[in-house]
# Entry
Amino acid sequence: MAHMQPDVILLFCARSVRLFAYGALSVVLALYLHETGLTGEAIGLLFTLTLAGDAGISLWITTTADRVGRKKMLILGAGLMVMAGIVFGMTGNFILLMIAGVIGVISPRGNEIGPFLSLEQAALSQILPSEQRTKAFAWYNLAGSLAAAAGALAGGLLSQGLKHAGYADLGSYRAVILAYSACGAVLITLFYFLSPEVEARTAVPAKERVLGLHRSKGVVLKLSALFALDAFAGGFVIQSMVAYWFHIKFGLDAGALGGIFFGANILAGFSALLAVRLANRIGLISTMVYTHIPSNVLLCLVPFMPTAGLAVFVLLLRFSISQMDVPTRQSYTMAVVAPDERSAASGVTTIARSVGAAVSPSLAGALLASPALLGAPFLVAGGLKIVYDLLLYRNFRKADIR
# Structure
C-alpha cells in the first residue's frame, strides 16, 4: 500500500500482536479451564459472562473515544488485557475468573474482542483515502488472520513442548495464558507512539449525540440488530468451543488443534483479499451475502463427517470463504456514517455483535455436554447465519456501495 504512514504501521502491528495472542489463547483456554475443574456448562457460562462484560466495557470506551481520545482508550484497553491474562493465569476460582473476564479483555473466540477493532478502523478510515478503505481493511484483516494462525500454532506447540518437558497439562496451558498477558504489555507500547493524527475531529457537540452518533443513528441501529443475530449464531462455534468439540469428538490434543486453526486462519485471511476485487464488481452488500451463505452450508456439514480428517477438511473449506464478508462489512459501516461518528458506529455495531455472541456459548456448552446433541452447535449456527444473510440482503441491497 502506498500510504504506509507510521500510524498505519503501528496499527497493523498492534492488530498482529493482538490476534497472535487471541489465536494462542483460543487453542488452550477451554482445555485450561477444564483442567482447573470447571465443567463444560461452567466454561460456556464463563465465556458468556466474559463476552457480556466485554460488550459493556467496549461500549463505554468506543462511544467516548472520539471525545476523550482514541489513543488513551486504546492504551486503557491494552491494560485491561494485561490484567485479565494475569488473573486467568493465576487462579482457577470461578468467581475471580468471572470478575476478570467481565472487567478485563480476554478472547475465547480466537478473534477480535474489546474496543481495539472499532478505534483502529476509525483511525485508519481517517488517515487513509476513502478509495483505499476496503483494500486497507482487507489487508488489516489478513494481517490479523495470519497472526491468529501463527498464534494458534504457537500456542499448541508451546503447550505440547512444555508437556514433553515434564510439565503437567495445567502448567503448560497456564504458560500460554501468561504469554497472552505479555502481549497486552506490547500493545501498550505500540499505542503509546501513535500520533495526534489518529484522533477524531469532532464537529457535533456531545449533547446532540446518542451513543456517540448523530445523523446515522437509524442505519447504525438497523445494522447492529442484524450483526447481533450473526454474532449470536457465531457464538455457538467460537474457536475455543470448536477446539473443545474436536477434543471430545475425536480426541485431538492441543498440538493438533493448533495446527488446524493455523490452517483455518491462513485461509480466512487470504479470503478477505478476494473480497476486495469482488466488491468492486458487485458491491459490498452482495459480496457479504453471496459468499457467506455457502460458508454456512459447509458449517452445517461439519458434524456429519465420520472422521476427524473429513471434519477438518470441511471446516477448512468453510474458512476459505468465511471471512470475505468481514472487510466488506467493516468498509460499508465506515462509508455510511459521518467521519466523526466512525468510532461510535464501529463501536455500537461491534458491541451489538458482542452482545449477540455473549449468550450462545453457554447454550453451546450445554449442548456439548450431551453426547446426543454434540453436533447441534454447528447446525444452529449455520442455520441462523443463513437467516441473517437473507435479512441483510433484503434490507440493504438497494443501498449497496462499490
Notes: The first helix runs from residue 6 to 35.
